[in-house]
Specification:
Length: 178
């Protein structure tokens, strides 16, 4: 049934992924502004990855041209993979915290005070902030859940792309882009 839906409504699936990303971003804003949790540099990078996935899947869902939505969905898969990498790195830091937990600079302080070639490695090195677990749900931290969501989005989009690449060659009656 799910594969049938993937075959018949790829743009709806991309739209749902976009909405899920927006919901995750809204929840992150809630945790920051209402609950009072401050995001670490890796959390901010994951937010940017969520924005990227939301924008590209939203644009892909907006147009009925097959090449358009498949190209944008492919870019969204790459961004989801990057987001999963950052979330996995942060999860690893949480499971194996550094011996010396320093708070380090915030994300914007790194970008403003260092050239990008030095700031990016500093972000991925993590800090005491990145290793801290301030919130959990069902035993998983925000980074753990972020990783699961990025991987889920990526798998769904890869299946969608694979089925439509395969289906596009054979044509097939009843093929719909709705």
């Amino acid at each position: 049934m799910l594969l049938n839906w993937i075959d018949t409504a790829p743009r709806r699936i991309l739209g749902l992924i976009s909405l899920a990303c927006v919901a995750m971003l809204a929840f992150g804003m809630y945790l920051q502004h209402v609950v009072g949790l401050e995001p670490c540099p890796m959390c901010i990078v994951q937010r940017y990855a969520l924005i990227g996935v939301a924008v590209f899947t939203g644009l892909a869902a907006a147009r009925n041209t097959r090449g358009w939505w498949m190209s944008l969905a492919g870019i969204a898969v790459l961004i989801a993979g990057f987001g999963a990498f950052v979330a996995a790195r942060q999860s690893w830091l949480q499971w194996y915290p550094p011996e010396v937990a320093t708070c380090g600079r915030d994300f914007y302080g790194m970008i403003e005070n260092y050239p990008i070639s030095r700031a990016i490695p500093m972000i991925f090195r993590g800090s005491g902030d990145c290793a801290a677990i301030d919130w959990t749900f069902l035993g998983g931290s925000i980074a753990n859940w972020s990783f699961i969501c990025f991987v889920g989005f990526g798998i769904v989009m890869l299946v969608l792309l694979a089925r439509h690449l395969k289906g596009g060659r054979r044509g097939g009656a009843g093929y719909s882009m709705a």
